[in-house]
Amino acid sequence: MHIDGVSDSAFSDALDVFSQILEHPEQRGAALCVQVAGETVIDVWGGVTDRQGEQLWQRDTLINIFSSGKPIAAVVLLQMVAEGRLSLDTPLVEYWPEFALHGKHRITLRHVLSHQAGLPAIAEQQPAEALYDWAHMVKAVVETPPWWEPGSAHGYAPMTYGWIVGELIRRVDGCEPGEAIARRIARPFQLDLHVGLDEHALSRVGDVMRMKGVLADDASLRLMKVMGGQPQGMTAKAFSNPPSMMTSTNKLEWRVMQQPAANAHGTARGLAGFYTALLQDQLLESDMLAAMVQEHSRGQDLTLHTSTRFGLGCMLEQADQLPASYALGQHCFGHPGAGGTLGCADIERELSVAFITNSLGASVLMDPRAQRINAMLKKCV
User: Fold this and answer.
1) pTM
2) What one GO molecular function would you report for this record (predicted)?
3) 3-class secondary structure for the chain?
């Protein structure tokens, strides 16, 4: 499969791994960008972007990066904390009075960003079409009691994270979450990252497709078993309430809405550039970045039923848990996205990595393709 782009010869082994990934019969397309101390050493892409296999992946092809966009929204909020407009430990009801309903009056931004708020899923079943109605979904979150005592445990919030942080951005920053990301992050640093696509960006989006016959790891199998055995349970609702959450990725309505938990779109170059800007203290001052990557949650995740470790809006390295390891270094942070996307940075090596793909694998945390690339990068740096 043809590969375009540029690559430093010192990283040829990592490029070989990327090439091998593209040779898999179920792999449609992908892009990889690696930056070291602000310098781009790999910026490559290859494959196709459509189901028919007729459209080649281009330099500016955009792909849904799913939860890999969560840290981008977190940085917007942490910037507002630095500006004194938000506080990590002030109850959210100070900014959003309605949020207090059903015992949520003590939940803080720190709880939300570290997945300790007890709100990983909406309790009341929602109709499929409600997914695209912001006011409806925010009201559904407000009307959901915490699934556990906030701060006493943690459980990943795949979608409710976006409605909560997005509504905070709307109320405090006075604009939609995607607009805040564009104004504060994407435009100033010329990053091809979007939450809510305009007409020009829509013409560059590739479709995502599930890979067939890909083996799931133990964490993924355990999650699927829980969801299948308890279809009305918290975990199942976290991923499928509304049910359209599971089937909307290639729909126009999904691409244009501004749901910062799951519908960010970008290039690998844009995602890697985001982490480089973080490492260089351009998006956050060093003390706020230190707070972001400080461990806030660790251990059994009540949603994912596996071990997770979170900072503020980012997932931290777990070297002893293969499905949750970046395979890059102990000081790595970032976030995987559904099906294979990964954006991350290694503070020690000043390394930023972004792997994006339109071919969805079966892993719930780190995808083996991205792990293979990272493991080779570790040897190259």
Assistant:
1) 0.97
2) hydrolase activity
3) CCEEEEECHHHHHHHHHHHHHHCCCCCCEEEEEEEECCEEEEEEEEEECCCCCCCECCCCCEEEEEHHHHHHHHHHHHHHHHCCCCCCCCEHHHCCHHHHCCCCCCCEHHHHHCCCCCCCCCCCCCCHHHHHCHHHHHHHHHCCCCCCCCCCCCCCCCCHHHHHHHHHHHHHHCCCHHHHHHHHHHCCCCCCEEECCCHHHHCCECCCEECCCCCCCHHHHHHHHHHHHCCCCHHHHHHHCCHHHHCCCCCHHHHHCCCCCCCEEECHHHHHHHHHHHHCCCCCCHHHHHHHCCCCEEEECCCCCCEEEECCCCEECCCCCHHHCCCCCCCEEEEECHHHCEEEEECCCCEEEEEEECEECCCCCCCHHHHHHHHHHHHHC
